[in-house]
Amino acid sequence: MTQPIPNPGEHLRTALALAASGVPVLPLRAGKVPFGNCPACAGNACGGRPHMKTPGPCTCPKPCHAWAAATTDPDVITSRPWQRAWQHASAVAYHPGGAGLTVVDLDDADAIVWAREHLPTTQTVPTTRGEHWLYRGTMPSANAVRPGVDLKSTMAYARWLGPGTGTMAALPDAVRALTAAPARPAPKSVTASAPVGGGTCRHRTPVFLERGIAMAEQRITEAPSGVHNAVYGTFLAVLATHGHCGCLTDAHVARLFTAAQHRGESPRHCAEAWTNARTTLGI
What we know:
This protein has helices at 8-20, 74-77, 80-88, 109-118, 173-176, 206-221, 227-242, 250-262, 267-281, and strands at residues 25-29, 33-34, 91-94, 101-106, 123-126, 131-136, 142-146, 149-152, 158-159, 169-170. It is of the alpha+beta class. The strands form two sheets. Strands 4, 5, 6, 7, 8 and 10 form a six-stranded mixed beta sheet that branches. Strands 2-1-3-9 form a four-stranded antiparallel beta sheet. Helix 6 packs antiparallel against helix 7 (227-242), helix 6 (206-221) runs parallel beside helix 8 and helix 7 (227-242) crosses helix 9. The longest helix has 16 residues, at 206-221. It is elongated and about 80 Å long.
């Protein structure tokens, strides 16, 4: 059954009540999206992420939207800009981290079953498709930590859907562990050798080669996306600069392969990328 949407007065009363209890609040427009509370940020013009769910590098006097705008100050909540927002708001949101809380957002029935089997019982709030489990304590927010499970705490917001039921428990280690980086297998030994060389050496000093390898490792390690292409491009650049004279050793190649494997590349993909780079350059 579809729930009726509260009127602006009810949203404002809810927001003031939450703020009085120490919960930072903000209005949400249709689609569970925050308002841009200044002209410079209208339509995401300030550079925030899609739908302004996180604030961009705007030049407003203070944070004007998303979780950063959440406040407990009744003067801000009832100010003229916010009054206009309440007229068009579809819901009230709050900043869990600002209230010292973490919300485990369970998006479907399977996620709820998992939580009941693995997490301690706590205060529970029904949502449209699942449940919010609330814990005392904060942590970094993260999406999709497992199928159907998001974590909302610091630098995030959640819809206020009522107090729910049950007694709130302390944030368990089992929730914190959901954001821990999975252990990667130790890189395997290198399966490709350095070129024999024979061309003119342009390095002049070993420092030039060492700096080149270090920069290549950094490029692979810091690639924001498209790691496979970044690995191939880096191998190509290294071979183009250092692959003709024979100064490049198997130890250097092993360092590059290790960096690539730490980013998730398999030994086979490393070897293929290395071979393709050598073929492209005729080495």
